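Section 5.1 Outputs to date
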Amino acid sequence: MTGSVPYYGGRFTPAQAYAAAHPPRPQIPAAQPPAAQPPARPSQDPVEALQHLLDTGVLTQVEFDELRERVER
């Protein structure tokens, strides 16, 4: 025996013959998930936070005015 491969008088072993006849399939890389954006640091000022919500369209002007009144009390 030479190394870790059995020697069969110059012939392939059955496992070697199968491996030669059936090459491995190429590996398809797994899809990478999109990089997560860290959440924005919340503002310490509640009016600034409300302004941000108004600017991004989460709040309407009426809702903004009502909530700003509550915060300023």
